[in-house]
Amino acid sequence: MSKNDWKQEEHELFDGRCKIFTTKKSNGIYQLQIWLKDEGKTFRKSLRTKHLQTAMELGREEYIKISSRIQQGKQIFSEDVTTVVNRYLRYRQEDVDTGVIVKQRLSTIKTHLMNMLEYLHGDMKVSDIHKGTFIEYWNWRKKKTDNKVNDETIRNEYSTFRMFIKYCHREGLTEISSDSLEIKKFDRNRHVGNVRRDTFTEEEWEKIYKGMRTYCSRKNCENEVDYYNRQVLRNYIITLSNTGMRTGELEQLEWRDVIDYRKEDRYGKEREIVYIQVRGETSKVRKNRRLFCRDSLCFRRMEELSNYRNKDDLIFCNSQGSRLTGRQKQRFWEGIIEFCGIDRTERNITYYSLRHFFVTQRWKGGVRLRDIANSCGTSVNQIEKTYYHLDEETLIQTVLKDDRRKK
Length: 407
Prior knowledge:
Layout: E1 7-13, E2 18-23, E3 31-36, E4 41-46, H1 52-71, H2 81-97, H3 103-120, H4 137-144, H5 151-170, H6 188-197, H7 202-215, H8 224-243, H9 247-251, E5 258-266, E6 269-278, E7 289-293, H10 297-305, H11 326-339, H12 353-364, H13 369-376, H14 380-400
Antiparallel strand pairs: 1-2, 2-3, 3-4, 5-6, 6-7
Helix pairs in contact: 2-3, 3-5, 8-10, 8-12, 12-14, 13-14
C-alpha cells in the first residue's frame, strides 16, 4: 500500500498494471486506475463500493475486460465523430484509387456524412452512438430542408450511415452494430408518390424538348461559349431521356464508347440508333454494359459541334473540353425549367427525373422489365420496387381494354 497527497489508500493488481484506491474526496468509495500504454492515457472508473474485497474483484474483472478489448485491437477511449469520419473518408478514397467505387460516389458519401455530423454535432463521441441515435434523423432532415428533401435521398443517407457504423464496429470504436440501428420506417406508398410526382408528364417533356430549341438558340445566348455549352447540355438532356443512363455515366462517356450507328426500320420509316457501351469504372454498380440510344440525332449533332473528337475525349464536355460542372448544369436546368413554365410546386424535378421518365415511357410502351433493367444498369427487383405503381396502371388498362369498342 502507498499513499500520496490525493490518494488515501492504494492496492495493486496484476503486478501493478491495475490499481484500486480511495481519495480524500471519494468518501471511502474505491476507484480503478489502469494505464493504457498504446493510447497514452489513464483509464479511471468508480467501482461504487466501500468494501475492499468487492472492489478488488470488480477491478480484476474490469482489467480483464479492457485487456481483451486491447488484444482485439479496440480502443478504450472513444474518439469524436468528426475525427473518425475524416479517417473513414480517407479509407474510402483508397476504394476510389483502386477502382472499387467512382469518385462521384465518394463525393456523395461525403455529403451524406456531413449531414450526419450536423445532426450529431461533430464533438459527439463515437461510443455514445446507440441503436436509437438516428431515429429522429428523418424528421430533422425534413425540417432542415423545409420538407424539400425527398424520401429516397434520406434512405440513401441511412445506407451511408450504416456503412460508417459498420466500419466503426470493425475498428473497435463502438459496440453497436450497423444492423441494430433503428431508423424511421420507410413508407412505400409515399415513395411511389414521390416517383410519380418527381418526373415529367409527356406534355411537360414535350414543352422542354421543343423549348430547348429556342432557349439554346444564338439569339438567347450571351456569347459563343454560352451557346456552345447550352447546345451540349441540350443534347445531354435528350440523351438522358433516350437512354435512362445515370448522369455520372453519361458525363464520362467518351467517343471510344460509341460502338456503331445502326439503321433500323420502324413502322416503314428508317431510323438510326446508337450502340454504346458504359464502362464499369464509370458506373455506379461497377459493371460493364451495352445499350442502345433510340435516337442518333444528339450524337450526330455533337459530332458537328464538338471541338474535342479524339477517342478519349468526353462526348458531352464543356467549351474547355472538361467534364460539365455542377454549376453549369444547375444554371441550365433552372433556366430551361423556368423558360418552359414547368410547375415545380412540391416537386423535386432534377436531372434524375429524366431517368424516371425513361423507365416510365419504356414500361408503358410494353418493353419487358428485364430489358429496361439491363439498359439502365439496375435489377428487375429494383425496378419493380420503385415503379410498381406502373404495373397497377397496366393491369387497370388491361382489364378495361376492349378492341371491339371505340373510345
